[in-house]
């Protein structure tokens, strides 16, 4: 089939040469099934697309017109853009062919190849075999493109690590991933990535399904997680979903329409949502149809947390990263710290019952910024938990500003209170002094009364005037 592809290319090139076209180098483009792609027309200085034709190499040395004189023959599948490039929507395998753009004088060729992943239906016992390759409508592509490389990676784009993975390369355009099967490979995603000259050209994801398998889910404490029940698409009439963890049934107390709790609730798609996950939420969850409990979907939930401890009077801080597993933590799990100072050191992995620990010891004075603990499964980061330090010498502005404002308001209030109290005391003091002085003057006048006839008339007038002046002052 590979030789047949090159026969088609040669035939199309010869046809164009016989027509007197000047041809440019072939361009190879890569895509995935279902994608949209734009094929460039490499003819320089095209002024009007009305003179452009797009042709596609067909079977038995035939040529199919895709665009004729600027008009698309199948507009529901494609479109001619302003720069005369050809856009194809919703790619199918039959679209993976050799295309040619011409304007009657010049032409350029574009080869469209599809990256595909299939699973071997008959693998070696207890293994999974995935095959990733470049494909065209007639089958496997001959790998004549320089710089092509296919590799397998995890969902977070990290290299696959572990003894249970084998890689085989029949050619540069064909790769096999052979996996020693585990129950927890159920609904696990694997990526095949195509690069050309170290540039990523296409990446495709494949999800494996294991009979009686368990899907593993990792989440950090304090976050929210949604557990999907994938059997709901085939519910029978009148059927409902039943959720349980261990031996305890959960759906007796919750439903998608009522009876919700703060910790657990059901969505209308029957997925189970746990808000503010805690370590006690780790466990094996099962969902099944109430009318057919033979169909059970299983999810194993692991939780990740970080705790801190400082001995009173001590100079060191201990941060503990804790992975709580449903039963026993897998041997392919690893806990890693990042963001620590060079003065810190880690304890390494510690297994305690159903938990996996990694402690970080560091001087208190060197604790600044943010530290992160991550759980890795076979080299892939599954969840992370951050710990942030609080420096008492660096009070955040959002705390300092309200505190300063409160102090100003308190000072102003105290000042106004003291001023008002002072004014009130002054007002009470003035009338008291005036009346006392009048009383004393009257008393003196009464005592001196029997002796007034001894004074001269001038003295009496003076006394009267003084008393009048005193009353004027008081008034």
TrEMBL record:
Asked whether the UniProt record includes Phosphoprotein among its keywords, one would answer no
Q: Which domain of life is it from?
A: Eukaryota
Ig-like domain sequence ranges: 34-111, 202-297
Show the stretches that span the lipid bilayer: 397-417
GO BP, one example? T cell activation
Q: Name one GO molecular function term.
A: MHC class II protein binding
The cross-references to Gene3D superfamilies, in alphabetical order and at most eight, read: Immunoglobulins
Question: Signal peptide: which range, if any?
Answer: 1-20
Task: Give the GO cellular component terms, alphabetically.
Answer: external side of plasma membrane; membrane raft
Q: Which UniProt keywords apply?
A: Membrane, Signal, Transmembrane, Transmembrane helix
Q: Which PANTHER family match?
A: DIVERSE IMMUNOGLOBULIN DOMAIN-CONTAINING PROTEIN 1.1 ISOFORM X1-RELATED (PTHR11422:SF5), T-CELL SURFACE GLYCOPROTEIN CD4 (PTHR11422)
Q: What is this protein called?
A: Protein sidekick like
Q: What organism, scientifically named, is this protein from?
A: Dissostichus eleginoides
Q: What is the lineage of its organism?
A: Eukaryota, Metazoa, Chordata, Craniata, Vertebrata
